[in-house]
Design goal:
The protein has an eight-stranded parallel beta sheet. β2, α3 and β3 form a beta-alpha-beta unit. 40% of the residues lie in helices and 16% in strands. The chain is globular and about 40 Å long.
Amino acid sequence: MFVDSHCHLDFPELVCQLDAILSRMSAAEVDEALCVSVTLAGFPQVLALAEREPRLWASAGVHPDTIDEDEPDVDRLLEMAAHPKVIAIGETGLDYYRIEGDAPWQRERFRTHIRAARACGKPLIIHTRAAAADTLRLMREERAEAVGGVMHCFTETWDTASAALDLGFYISFSGIVTFKNAADLRSVARQVPLDRLLIETDSPYLAPVPHRGRTNEPAHVRFVAECIARERGESLETIARASRENFERLFRPPRGGKPASGH
């Protein structure tokens, strides 16, 4: 019924209880989840989880906050993305929230990921925090619309969402949309076209109400869907079906062992 379009099951809080997490996914009717890479060193474990479990998929990328021993280049990302269980490039983007001064290295890393995505034809998972204008500018300059992707864990304004939608991107909402102080974000969730909407947990972070403050996990994506359904005046089944169809359309997870490529 549901798909968690962004989680980090390789993180220590979750990987140690993977079997229980997968069982709770089943109980909550969460049929699939995309495990997102944030470091070069951690990618093999992300891929191993996807190889082990048919319900899990993987991405290939380095988070904008990550200071890796080796900076990813296009060839390295393409090598990582060649596996059929890898269905996206990212998590990538820009995050100016915690850095001081300029961040040319972040922008260059973001450009590298967009170029890799265009080279392999797999969509982008984009993170942006306190950097919306630069994020959109680089997306346009590097022609990210050629492959599309998702603005993950979206917390920006409707103007930013609209600009991303104009580039063919999807908008994904996390547990933040359920928070009491997130009225502006819920307004955005009401406006995003149904055929461009995704749901996620970003677990182990950002557990939705009623689990806020606890460790998050894919089973909790149901609460994100329930909140969005209430806000939009639509049924839970409508949100579940649309977000699943959108996941399939965007990421094209290979069925029957055939790798997905192209956009």
